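Researcher: I'm comparing several assemblies side by side, and this is the next one on my list. It has 740 residues spread over two chains. Same procedure as the others: predict the full complex and return the structure.
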Amino acid sequence: MSHIELRCPKCGITRPADMSAEACRDCGSPMDVGYLATRDTKGDTAPSPVHETSARVTLGEGNTPCVILNTIGGRLPLGRLRAKLEFLNPTGSFKDRGTATMLSVAGERGVTELVEDSSGNAGASVSAYAARAGIKAHIFVPADAPEAKLRQIRAYGTEVHPIAGPREAVTAAAIAYAQQNALVYASHMLSPYFAEGTKTFAYEVVEQLEDDLPGHVVFPVGNGSLLIGAFNGFNELLASGRIEKIPRLHCVQSRNVMPLVAAFNGQKWGPEDAAKTVAGGISIAAPSRQWQILEILRLTGGSAVAVEESSILKFQRDLAEDEGIFAEPTSAAAFAGLEILVDQDIIQQGDDVLVPATGFGLKDEPPPSS
Amino acid sequence: MSHIELRCPKCGITRPADMSAEACRDCGSPMDVGYLATRDTKGDTAPSPVHETSARVTLGEGNTPCVILNTIGGRLPLGRLRAKLEFLNPTGSFKDRGTATMLSVAGERGVTELVEDSSGNAGASVSAYAARAGIKAHIFVPADAPEAKLRQIRAYGTEVHPIAGPREAVTAAAIAYAQQNALVYASHMLSPYFAEGTKTFAYEVVEQLEDDLPGHVVFPVGNGSLLIGAFNGFNELLASGRIEKIPRLHCVQSRNVMPLVAAFNGQKWGPEDAAKTVAGGISIAAPSRQWQILEILRLTGGSAVAVEESSILKFQRDLAEDEGIFAEPTSAAAFAGLEILVDQDIIQQGDDVLVPATGFGLKDEPPPSS
């Protein structure tokens, strides 16, 4: 018997664990992993939906360093500003945490071929772990996706399917292809296992910073899988008595694609208002877990702010030139948001803050010259 | 008083520790760090030339994962074939180990501006750590260096000096510029501190693999700093009784640039025989520490083999498509060499082998399509 089931985080409905990315049949929310039996962890390691540890598909993801940013932190000014270098995961982004879990479950369920849609970090991550697991991956991408992004995806031997039209057309084509060919749709946006895998972020933060836990964690948010995973992890650590308080979790988006910021602040915004952003990793006009993200901001006392394109690029430069950290624009957006959160006194001078640097600067297009 | 001095690994002559990259005035060998006083380590951590731990310039380098390569390892066939994912260092290559130490020493000696020559991983690494330390970096590069390589170097705000002519002209220009402007020449090829920093590789391998230490470690070798550092580290661990035996350390080069392989095997080869190789990181026609490298191969029972360009590219593809590891061609060269070492029965079927995957595939030019 399985030690897990799938559980809707919104209405609580459950169903047996499977590889389907199908949403809750009642309320439409993506499902989460629920545990039927508590395992013998002492609350120090995240529970895992993988049955056999030996069957884990791993490239050594996680255990990324936390480094102090004295220059940027001193300028704001904050107490200790730390970056967790999530781009030092095996494919260069935090996605590997989620993918490792999703592909481990797929592997032990005998999946041999799967479908995903992403022209960015998730596409590269799923491709790499699929290659490692001996699973054939079909990655659906926008026909106009930049060659630099596709290069890494193709390197892992993935079959890339370019689709014309808007981003939603790519998702629709991926789902249709999976259905027609009876393949698993291993969506980083919808899979309960992907979201579950990102929980290790919180466990590591607590292990690394221990008694020095930051008051705030500031995330760049597209689909929100890292923010959701971090919250679920912190929540488990709170329940087990390992920590006394969950940090305030904040959401940063580009002003050009800001569904969550608008919803959080009661502003009108629709996918038709979306414009191109340098922060490609958070260019998601309709996040499938929007409800869950807003609930987490509310529960932890977090906030949601939108940032200018120019500020994203400025912080990308500052991170590299002042701190030696070459991150994607998407990652830099979180620091641009942090500046606003300090300006608005939501984060106060002297507070300790942690920001995940989610993706490697090497992965993106060359930034416009300064 | 300093706890270190500089010591010639060839003739034993010493001089007080300084930031000069000058070779031994007697025999011309680059100098190493020598320790005057033993510190209070229990042999578990590498001794460091840095006086104040709090002054360390760090981006969280090291602690890279070791992963098992079942597919490639099974094909050769070996016992356990492991890759240590050195490309998951902060700038995407193992160089960060050496750079962190070199820049920490520079920082505590009050260096504010330095010079280095490299169009590749070392240039990016020195740029990043210099940025972090608030030190201005001048990186001298060949005028025809590929834009993709320069992009990362420039991102850290480095001043890039393009120099026309052969690779040696670039080094000469860097040295001349350093002399004219009374700046430190922080050469990853010559600095004793850089070589010293790479020792942590061996300490980590022993900590991670413990009783399961591989019989062989196979390195792609250009200047040989990782091989030298690893040997020095293993040697300290042997002296302290932490390990009983040093693994056999092997050297792999491209057939197009093979000074060490030729010297090891008594073949005639000169810089005039060098041709272009896809393995840019080991395209060093006259390694400044050649004597030291050959001595290490001899002492550990290692060997030196040269590989074809086509084999390098084949293993780059195999690593990505079969194991999910996207490494530079330079890193793939070591696996191509491993195949030869097995063919020649130098490494025997069933042996345990470790190979460092030294640089991220994202850092290089797109490989020719297969």
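Model: For your comparison table: The radius of gyration of chain A is 19 Å.
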